[in-house]
UniProtKB/TrEMBL annotation:
Keywords: Membrane, Transmembrane, Transmembrane helix
SUPFAM superfamilies xrefs: MFS general substrate transporter (SSF103473)
Keyword Membrane: yes
Protein name per UniProt: Major facilitator superfamily MFS-1 transporter
PROSITE patterns reported in the protein's UniProt record: MFS, PROKAR_LIPOPROTEIN
Length: 396
């Protein structure tokens, strides 16, 4: 039975075919990102109260972990392509636990930043190797659904982590938060102990494995442009509601998050039925309409509808682009390509706030117009890629 489980991920792709490794990896990523979500919730207050940090230092302590994840993803992907996904996933869990422990012993801003970096490196490596492992062994006819649903492990962790962190802080204080943030990745590591050992893919003919595979260039560029809107939403949605004097601003991000996860869950199977390029174009258009609506509308119900549209459109970027990357990347660099594409998401998200802040003004409206244009521009790299792919066949 164990042997069947180890090898079954390459078959027709029924639920049982991916059940054991899929759900162990899903749970591990969920636990890892719950730990990150917990720390994000409490870090700003902790840095100010216990380390006398100013706003810039507290902001650095929050964001540096995401930057570390962005940097490590393609490197972790390359390691997974060389050695197989399992050891890199296990290493990511260990780094995550060390990062949680480092929060417990940090005494000043520099040591807290080091803790954040270690935690970010761990969770970036964990997710990248896990999604590469899952998609490399998934039925090609179900890759969109599997990519989208597996990605919910990260989003549910990031959504639930702050709630858990706030509850633990209220009940037991900061020390308990850091202890739990250390323990959760250990639980993830334990879940993976019995996961099947997977051999590394054979090397390419020239023996090289790229850190930045060409298969991820166009999807990565599209991802960076389209995810810019998510960064704008995170930074300016509530200020936009406040500038318009709209009620319900405390629910605005919740509406975005709920529609994001609901659309991801329901829409991911559609990627496999209609094809990733078709769904991606539709998703980008829906996201752009929602973002431009937030620039233009002035009443509360329209604002909530546009928020939901932006969330639904943004949710489908990853399953579409992950499906395209997995389809086109060769086996010896597939996980590195997925890592690079995911880093592009991190990049667009990171730029949304600062770039939007330059043009925000008193109304916080202009960033949404820029984000809508950026979402539409996301189509261009894929159109150019399609023309390059079709050109040889036309000449033939």
């Amino acid at each position: 039975m164990k042997q069947t489980t180890n090898r079954s991920t390459g078959n027709a792709g029924g639920t049982a075919a991916v059940a054991f490794p899929y759900w162990a990896l899903w749970a591990a990523c969920f636990l890892g990102y719950t730990a990150i979500g917990m720390t994000i919730q409490v870090i700003p207050t902790y840095a100010r109260e216990h380390m006398a940090a100013n706003a810039i230092e507290a902001g650095l302590a929050v964001t540096i972990g995401s930057l570390a994840s962005m940097v490590i993803r393609p490197i972790a992907g390359r390691l997974a392509d060389q050695r197989g996904g399992r050891p890199v996933v296990m290493m990511g869990s260990i780094l995550g636990s060390i990062g949680g422990l480092a929060h417990l012993v940090a005494t000043n801003i520099p040591t807290l930043v080091v803790a954040r970096v270690i935690l970010g490196l761990g969770e970036g490596a964990l997710y990248t190797a896990a999604i590469g492992w899952v998609l490399s062994n998934a039925d090609p006819a179900r890759r969109g659904k599997i990519a989208g649903h597996f990605g919910l492990s990260m989003w549910t962790g990031l959504a639930g982590g702050p709630i858990l962190g706030a509850a633990i802080l209220a009940l037991r204080g900061y020390t308990a938060v850091w202890v739990v943030a250390c323990v959760l990745p250990v639980v993830a590591w334990l879940l993976l102990l019995r996961s099947p050992r997977t051999p590394a893919p054979p090397p390419s003919q020239d023996g090289r494995r790229a850190i930045f595979p060409r298969a991820a260039w166009a999807p990565g560029a599209s991802m960076a442009f389209a995810s810019f809107g998510y960064g704008v939403i995170a930074a300016f949605l509530v200020p936009r509601f406040l500038a318009l004097h709209l009620p319900g601003q405390e629910f605005a991000l919740a509406v975005f998050g709920i529609t994001f996860m609901l659309a991801r869950f329901l829409g991911s199977p559609v990627v496999d039925r209609l094809g990733a390029p078709t769904v991606l174009i539709l998703a980008v258009i829906v996201e752009a309409v929602g973002l431009f609506g937030l620039f233009a509308v002035t009443d509360v119900w329209s604002a909530f509808i546009c928020t939901g549209l932006a969330g639904a459109g943004a949710s489908m970027l990853y399953p579409c682009l992950a499906s395209l990357v997995t389809e086109t990347a060769s086996s010896h660099e597939r996980t590195a390509a997925l890592g690079l594409m995911t880093s592009a998401w991190d990049l667009g998200l990171a730029l949304g706030g600062p770039v939007g802040g330059v043009v925000a003004g008193a109304t916080s409206a202009p960033p949404f117009a820029i984000a809508a244009v950026a979402a539409l521009v996301a189509i261009v790299p894929l159109v150019a890629r399609s023309k390059r792919v079709l050109a040889p066949s036309r000449r033939g």
